[in-house]
């Protein structure tokens, strides 16, 4: 009951702001399922709007009001969920999932004959429930127990470490150590002594690299160097300046001729520039590209010193560098994979994105390029990245994180946002308000669901090619529309059996998502 | 009918990384300057309602990333633009020299109906910095603008809010003009088609 009160209050408050939008918009709000329970509480004048003006504008164009409404609806939904969470803390998420994939939620999809792979499983009641879970961050005690005392070698299966980090990230005090492993500075099978000598060697190697430009006036006078230098400078002074590590300005700028608008800097900013410039010489083909400073900043803050930060950054870049290639093929591929994934997991949302010309998924570009660096708060980014580095379920788990965020907002996107620009604005504005743990839980559930569906499809396909029997397809309806997943795909020579055609195709890009090995994305 | 229609003016801001696109947009829409703005990744827009010639219009101002390799993915929203704002940094020669390619790229990607007369506006930003750092003179910039069909030119500072309001008023005005023209064309799509059909018969009408 208290909950209704809150919502009601919210409606009144928001309504005053919405009033300046058209009556049409007002009617829209009140028609929203979330608003229905409070309609009886509204003053008659407002209530009348529901019946008013049935003729909707036919021309769809950008409407800031719709974004406003969408946000409002999202906040009401969030409050409702929050209230429920207080009452049934553990159940709420798993219940949501049950509901999400229950028949009732599936029905409207079926009417559109756009049901994807879910159908294949919906008839099967024997499957165990999916079990996604989060746990406490890995602490120092557990971390050190993974290594033997004498030589300091890993004495448990690497998978155990990966899973622990995946489930809860790591505590602050061991982060610096754990990251050195995940970012490839320390091999997993190294001993304590080996690690010490690795650090020594890396230090020397870094200084040699840095010397290539640091005290070479000839290099420094080249136009390429100058251009890269100013690029790096421009970005470093715009990167995470609210973090105290980068905020202070207590040092005169070393280059009075620089185009920077402030003549002050600090040591850490200068180290950031040095690391990026050295990387520019270390990876000459790539050089510095925008976005890299975002990837470096957390790594540097965690590693604390320039040398270790450089090598940790190199390790991170080894898996990220393709995002920054000139041809952008890798970015396109990831967006395409996400497109396939949405189509496979949520055909109805996919159709909506298609209708609104949004399938380029451009609003996910930033998410993927720098792994949600701009979407979560500082501490959360550290946590999210180590979860992603763990490669516990998939080396491309970030795409499931992307799917999870879209999934959470799917109803709102489909109901309120009718234009590419509206969706882009709404999604961009989610930044800094996405609850991370919940998103990770959702992402894991989606992954498990995905995995299960792929297995089920493969099994059915195998069955179909082996027998010609028609009745092995109970619970799977014939789709009238065109194949919802992947049109540009190999049919893998799976024969022309009609039965086979009923299943969504698991494209190569989708299959790649089941891979945990980063060396072959 | 069309006069009652809500007017949305789509404006695209282009220019090299770091010239101040994000800062200009925020100065205009939110009336503030912050050194905390991050390098733009992907694209975003802000909207603002303004009066132009006694008409209330909504400006949708698109801010994009300046680094060229990210452009290829971002051209989708060039389409339907009503005005394109080209920004350079008056203290940075290269950012001025690339204006040509920004303009060309825009015309290719947006493919406006009448490229010759599509409205551009050029902004030379960061005029608040010391005179000694200035790399592109006002005269040089104006000469370029004239050579491209008299593009309106403003010298601005997003930091000190110099000339920003002024510049965007012109941007809005020219965008509205463009939008009205486009609407006119849209209302009469037939003549073009008829022309094409007729050309079969009187192509030698010269
Ligand atoms: N002095 C001065 N500095 C400015 C002005 N406008 C922007 N800056 C600074 O120039 C740098 C770049 O500004 P942004 O607005 O982020 O540049 P941008 O064109 O959006 O850059 P990208 O997003 O990388 O394409 C920032 O450090 C700003 O603080 C100005 O008018 N005067
Ligand atoms: Mg910007």
UniProtKB/TrEMBL annotation, chain A:
User: Spans of biased composition, class Polar residues?
Assistant: 486-501
**Domain of life where this protein originates:** Eukaryota
Gene3D superfamilies noted in UniProt: putative rabgap domain of human tbc1 domain family member 14 like domains (1.10.8.270), Ypt/Rab-GAP domain of gyp1p, domain 3 (1.10.472.80)
All residue ranges annotated as the Rab-GAP TBC domain in the record:
169-392
One Pfam match, given by its short name, reads RabGAP-TBC
UniProt-recorded Gene Ontology molecular function terms: GTPase activator activity
Q: Where is this region: Disordered?
A: 463-501
Give the UniProt entry's GO cellular component terms: cytoplasm
Q: Which UniProt keywords apply?
A: GTPase activation
The cross-references to InterPro entries, in alphabetical order and at most eight, read: Rab-GAP-TBC_dom, Rab-GAP_TBC_sf
**PANTHER family (UniProt xref):** SMALL G PROTEIN SIGNALING MODULATOR 2-RELATED, TBC1 DOMAIN FAMILY MEMBER GTPASE-ACTIVATING PROTEIN
> In its UniProt entry, what is this protein called?
GTPase-activating protein GYP7
- Organism in which the protein naturally occurs: Glomus cerebriforme
Which taxonomic lineage does the organism of this UniProt entry have?
Eukaryota, Fungi, Fungi incertae sedis, Mucoromycota, Glomeromycotina
UniProtKB/TrEMBL annotation, chain B:
Which biological process annotations from GO are given for this protein? regulation of vacuole fusion, non-autophagic
Named from the GO MF annotations, one term is: GTP binding
Keyword Nucleotide-binding annotated: yes
Which SMART domains does the UniProt record give? RAB (SM00175), RAN (SM00176), RAS (SM00173), RHO (SM00174)
Q: Which organism is it from?
A: Glomus cerebriforme
Keywords in alphabetical order, please: GTP-binding, Lipoprotein, Nucleotide-binding, Prenylation
Q: Return the PROSITE patterns for the record.
A: RAB, RAS, RHO
CDD domains membership: Rab7
What cellular component terms from Gene Ontology apply here? late endosome; vacuolar membrane
Write down a Pfam family by its short name.
Answer: Ras
Query: Which superkingdom, per the lineage?
Result: Eukaryota
GTP-binding as UniProt keyword: yes
Tell me the protein's name.
Small GTPase superfamily
InterPro entries (alphabetical): P-loop_NTPase (IPR027417), Small_GTP-bd (IPR005225), Small_GTPase (IPR001806)
SUPFAM superfamilies assigned: P-loop containing nucleoside triphosphate hydrolases (SSF52540)
**What's the family?**
Belongs to the small GTPase superfamily. Rab family.
């Amino acid at each position: 009951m208290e909950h209704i009160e809150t919502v009601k209050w919210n409606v009144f408050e928001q309504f005053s702001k919405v009033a300046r939008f058209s009556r049409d918009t007002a009617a829209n709000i009140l028609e929203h399922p979330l608003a229905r329970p409070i309609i009886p509480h509204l003053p008659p004048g407002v209530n009348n709007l529901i019946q008013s003006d049935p003729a909707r504008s036919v021309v769809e164009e950008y409407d800031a009001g719709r974004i406003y409404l969408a946000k409002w609806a999202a906040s009401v939904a969030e409050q409702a969920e929050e209230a429920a969470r207080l009452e049934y803390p553990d159940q709420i998420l798993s219940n949501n999932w049950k509901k999400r994939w229950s028949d009732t939620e599936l029905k409207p999809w079926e009417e559109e004959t756009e049901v994807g792979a879910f159908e294949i499983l919906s008839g099967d009641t024997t499957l165990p429930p999916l079990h996604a879970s989060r746990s406490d961050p890995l602490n120092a005690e557990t971390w050190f127990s993974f290594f033997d005392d004498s030589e300091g070698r890993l004495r448990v299966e690497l998978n155990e470490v990966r899973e622990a980090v995946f489930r809860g990230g790591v505590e602050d005090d061991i982060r610096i150590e754990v990251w050195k492993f995940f970012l490839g500075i320390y091999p997993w099978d190294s001993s304590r002594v080996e690690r010490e000598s690795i650090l020594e060697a890396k230090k020397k190697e870094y200084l040699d690299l840095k010397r290539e430009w640091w005290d070479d006036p000839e290099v420094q006078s080249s136009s390429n160097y100058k251009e890269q230098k100013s690029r790096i400078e421009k970005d470093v002074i715009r990167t995470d300046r609210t973090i105290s590590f980068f905020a202070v300005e207590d040092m005169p700028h070393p280059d009075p001729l620089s185009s920077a608008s402030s003549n002050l800097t600090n040591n850490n900013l200068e180290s950031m520039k040095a690391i990026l410039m050295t990387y520019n010489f270390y990876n000459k083909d790539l050089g510095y590209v925008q976005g890299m400073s975002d990837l470096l900043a957390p790594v540097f803050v965690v590693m604390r010193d320039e040398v270790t930060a450089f090598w940790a950054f190199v390790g991170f870049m080894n898996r990220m560098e393709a995002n920054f290639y000139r041809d952008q093929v890798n970015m396109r591929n990831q967006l395409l994979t996400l497109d396939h994934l949405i189509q496979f997991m949520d055909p109805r949302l996919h159709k909506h994105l298609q209708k609104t010309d949004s399938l380029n998924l451009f609003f996910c570009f930033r998410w993927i390029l720098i792994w949600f660096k701009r979407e979560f708060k500082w501490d959360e980014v550290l946590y999210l990245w180590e979860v992603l580095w763990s490669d516990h379920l998939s080396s491309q788990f970030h795409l499931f994180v992307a799917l999870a965020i879209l999934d959470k907002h799917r109803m709102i996107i489909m109901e309120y946002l009718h234009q590419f620009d509206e969706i882009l604005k709404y999604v961009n504005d989610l930044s800094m308000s996405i609850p991370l743990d919940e998103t990770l839980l959702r992402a894991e559930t989606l992954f498990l669901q995905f995995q299960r569906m792929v297995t089920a499809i493969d099994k059915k396909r195998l069955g179909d090619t082996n027998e010609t029997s028609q009745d092995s397809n109970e619970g799977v309806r014939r789709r009238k529309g065109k194949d919802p997943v992947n049109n540009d795909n190999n049919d893998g020579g799976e024969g022309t059996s009609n039965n086979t055609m009923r299943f969504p195709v698991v494209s190569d890009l989708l299959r790649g998502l089941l891979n945990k090995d980063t060396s072959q994305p | 009918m069309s006069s009652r229609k809500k007017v949305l003016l789509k404006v695209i801001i282009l220019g090299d990384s770091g010239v101040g696109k994000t800062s200009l947009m925020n100065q205009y829409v939110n009336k503030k300057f912050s050194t905390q703005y991050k390098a733009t990744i992907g694209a975003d827009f802000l909207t603002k309602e303004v009066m132009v010639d006694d008409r209330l219009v909504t400006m949708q101002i698109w801010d994009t990333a300046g680094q060229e390799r990210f452009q290829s993915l971002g051209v989708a929203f060039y389409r339907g633009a009503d005005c394109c704002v080209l920004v350079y940094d008056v203290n940075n020669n290269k950012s001025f020299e690339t204006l040509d390619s920004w303009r060309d790229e825009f015309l290719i990607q947006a493919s406006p109906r009448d490229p010759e007369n599509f409205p551009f506006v050029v902004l030379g930003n960061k005029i608040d910095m010391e005179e000694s750092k200035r790399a592109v003179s006002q005269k040089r910039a104006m000469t370029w603008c004239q050579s491209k069909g008299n593009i309106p030119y403003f010298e601005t500072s997003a930091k000190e809010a110099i000339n920003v309001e002024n510049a965007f008023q012109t941007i809005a005005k020219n965008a509205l003009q463009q939008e009205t023209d486009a609407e006119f064309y849209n209302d009469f799509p037939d003549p073009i088609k008829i022309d094409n059909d007729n050309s079969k018969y009187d192509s030698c009408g010269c």
